[in-house]
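Chain X:
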Amino acid sequence: MGKAVPKSIKSRVEILLEEFPEKFGTDFTKNKQVLKDLDFELSQFDSNRIAGFITRTKNGEKE
């Protein structure tokens, strides 16, 4: 079984990676901090899921 990620999270991540590709990297904590710095109104749960999916996406690009 894989990890299910809702479409709402995937679409937000696509938009964020198109607009700010250089700000995000392969470190979860730094990605979470970038989301806080960008002043998005996100719950802690959504922030963690978005930062985690960005991290997984960036790690996939690296390989």
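Chain Y:
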Amino acid sequence: MINPKRTVSTKGSILPFAAFALVLIAAFVSFSFDIMRNVYAVRKLDYAAESAALYAYSNATAADGSYSRAAAQTNMTNALLSNGVAPINTAPAGPNNWSDPFESPVTFAAQDIVFNSNPSDQSELLLRVTARRDGADALNMFFLPATYLGKLMQGQNAPQDAYVARPTRTEEIIGQPASRIGPGAPGNAGQNGSSPFIGAAVFPLAISNTQFSLAAIPSETRSNYIIDLPTAASVPSSPAAAGHLRGYFVNLATKQGSSLYYDNAFGSGDVTNLLQLLSYFSSPNSATSLPPALVERGSLIGTFDPAGVNFQSRLSALVSALQQLPLGHFYILPVLAGDSTFSGRMPVVGFARMQLVQVTSPSNGQLQLIFAIGESVPVRNAVASEGYAMIPQMQAGNFLPAAVSPFTARPFDPINNSVAARPRGVALAPSLSPRRLN
């Protein structure tokens, strides 16, 4: 006879399920550890490839601003193979044994560096860099092999990828028109004042985009251009003659105690600033040299009137300072929105890469400068970016103004996987390539 008051005890029946659930949770947590570590390593490798390639590309030109394709490849390769990029780029690695670090510097070998040409501009040099974790740095999997427990119990081996992961990431860098040039490094920067960025700043002579936009057309063949220096009393009303660009000396010294970022361009002290700025490009270690300030698209700078009293009183010193500049050197010239009327400050729309050919002082007292238009290549100390401005702007908002030709971003053509051909004489900055990486 069954006792209706008797109950069946379930005590302890849940324990096997709890134990199984704990084992399952531990397995998923362990599995997630390996997976998330791989994902994290991929992100770190991507950043390492990107930052190292951008840095290497900025070394394309020599210290005097000159460029050759062979020298650029050597400069970029040396920059990547040096230990200079390793301390700032780290990623998970190994460990081969428990004494190894879990994260170590990302270094590059010759096989990680590839140079390509742009299908739309065969003379352009593109840089492709791969960051990897393989060999001694391959990622050992701690828990992933356990997912193949069935095979292991049968005496079989798990796939090799279950034991070791070898993630790689590749980035390609091209040149885009620079939107910002950093300030000049002090003359005593680096050991014995030998910083590679000394002189890699904006030269205090601006040119008008009214003429430069025509000179930058890729089909143009003219090399040398005479820089005309208009005065406030003779502002030109007609187009410039062929082979001429209108230029203006500008003050790129910062102004203290004012909402304006740059100092004025008319007083005696302003002319002294100009002399010191010019001295920076010939004698950066001189006690009287003055590094130019940061300049970006939208910067509003004042233009000197060459016929002004203060300018004329120091004309001989200015001619001497210009004649001390090394001929053949490439300089980064700010390009103004148009011809100056000397009634206010002019906005910068971009940067030109020009080679100084000749400085003369004719008998009529008027300076004459001749520059050769340079090839559009990456320059040191340059950035291609959009968004917020870094210096105070005399305009609504804090964003960089829209780019104008020839300084607009080069568009990508997905049909032939290329970037539009470079305009002439434009200072470029390293930028991530939009091209597909096959």
